[in-house]
Amino acid sequence: MQIATTVIYFIIVIGILIFIHELGHFLFAKRLGVGVLKFSLGFGPKLVGKKKGETEYVISAVPLGGYVKMMGDDPSEEAQDPEKSFSEKPLPSRLAIVAAGPGFNFLLAVVLFAVLHMIGIPTLTTRVGEVVPDSPAMQAGILNGDKIIAAEGRKIKDFDDLRKMVMNNAGKTITFKIQRGESVFDVQITPEPMETKNIFGETVQTGVIGVKADEVVTERYNPAMAIFKGAKLTGSVTRLTVVSIVKIIQGKLSPKNIAGPIGIATIVGEQARQGILSVISLTAVLSLSLGVINLVPLPALDGGHILFFAVEAVSRKPFTIRQREVAQQIGIMLLILLMVYVVYNDILRIVEK
Known about the structure:
Blueprint: H1 2-31, E1 36-52, E2 55-70, H2 91-119, E3 121-124, E4 128-131, H3 136-139, E5 147-151, E6 154-155, H4 159-167, E7 174-180, E8 183-189, E9 192-197, E10 203-208, E11 211-213, E12 216-219, H5 223-250, H6 261-274, H7 276-294, H8 302-315, H9 321-352
Antiparallel strand pairs: 1-2, 3-12, 4-11, 5-6, 5-7, 7-8, 9-10
Helix pairs in contact: 1-2, 1-6, 1-7, 2-5, 2-7, 2-8, 5-7, 6-7
């Protein structure tokens, strides 16, 4: 039963991500006068399809990708209508069409994160639930039930905000404003330096004061503020994703951390068991990852096309059909090798459990 649930949720989540990505390409192509011959969800043999106008809408057998086939997009084929040919459109139009796919993935993440903020985000308050013995907080006289409301004159919104302030000021004395019952007073606490591991497994120095929170509230936002929060969170997760990719390239983060289809399906299944909100959150993160990865300047990815457009803009000379074909073949081969590697990683993780 769990396997069936995992497979169903995986297909739904991946289907949404692929649909949104290809929808970006499709809508911009249509808007900019490019003929679209096929809109496919999935690869391989066609399961179902329907043709409307010049476009055939298809669901294919392998739900691990999708594509929008445009007139003049394939270097080896001649466009049926030169006026609707992708390759004949001005450079800014071609760039907009290619960038729209990843752009829609980022937009989906903003929307999903905004929905979560409207439904409600569980948030730890700054009310102290426990003071660690002999910690800087205990030495400063902090008691259970105290609420930390400000630091260095700046309002502390929640426990995460407090944690960031403390972590970034190891060894530096901070003036905190404390609320205890009806009284409000200041105390000075010096976060104790401590070595710990960050999310990348790197040893970093951070600060701690020795307090734990125990009060959780659900914060809900109006649509305008939820969109702002969603966009802000999208930016933060995007930066984290980019940093992760850079660290993998630099060899500072093991490529074994990359999950393939099996690994992603497993994660989706785990989140599904925690509830629909967890699935929405994961879908937003995966959408961002798909957007970022597609912007990597690798032939066959959107980023590869964008790189070619950049070279064309500088050289004032488009790539030849042969050059485009070779680049496409190299890109596809690299993607196949990457897929084999990540699937191997997924299987290895299962075997090692």
